[in-house]
């Protein structure tokens, strides 16, 4: 016995009927999402054009994306460059471009812990704690490690937070070095710290 063919429901707009409200909302949301994504991709492409090819590689851009960006840089005509930027956006769309955007934003803000060489995990963690939690994080750090100069650490934190983009990386390194020195001193002189902390307590103290 022949099976009955299944036909999708007719589009109400073909018969002059009003489109259901939920369909209209869905179509509007999708359109807004596409527009927002294209705007974000355009801004990301413009920002990447200002960066070096070495940074493109560090951010995980594909060879095709790097080639599209490099070619766009060479184009002088404004109209031609705009047309080629469409290819840049297409190449970025093939990647996890939101992650690339996040990495770029973190770098511009000074959050480059994965690129700061020779800093161990504990130093990086406490540097983040001090920058994010300010005085609360500083109080916990001083209590745990008997840091001798709270004022200097507070000033180093402010230096990172107030530094311009070109100086933020250097300021962040200074803070990390100071944190590393305090932790190293505490390790060399255990009597200066609270020896009664259990491993569980230490783990809890590092939580944001």
Walkthrough of the structure:
With 208 residues, the protein is mainly α. The protein folds into two domains: 25-109, Diphtheria Toxin Repressor, domain 2 (Orthogonal Bundle), CATH 1.10.60.30; 113-205, no CATH class. It has helices at residues 21-49, 53-58, 63-74, 78-93, 97-109, 121-133, 135-145, 150-162, 165-188, 199-205. The longest helix is centred in the first third of the chain and has 29 residues, at 21-49.
Essential attributes:
disordered C terminus; 2 domains; 208 residues; Diphtheria Toxin Repressor, domain 2; 10 helices; mainly alpha
Largest sheet: none
Determine the strand fraction and express it as a percent band. under 5%
H/I helix tally: 10
What is the N-to-C order of secondary-structure elements (H for helix, E for strand)? Answer: HHHHHHHHHH
What distance lies between the first and last C-alpha atoms, to the nearest angstrom? 67 Å
C-alpha Rg (nearest Å)? 26 Å
Mean of all residue-level pLDDT scores: 75
Oligomer state of the chains in this structure: single chain
Residue windows where pLDDT falls under 50 for at least 5 positions:
112-119, 193-208
Structural class: mainly alpha
Overall, the morphology is: elongated
Number of discrete domains: 2
List the helices and strands and how they pair.
Layout: H1 21-49, H2 53-58, H3 63-74, H4 78-93, H5 97-109, H6 121-133, H7 135-145, H8 150-162, H9 165-188, H10 199-205
Short overview:
The protein is mainly α and 208 residues long.
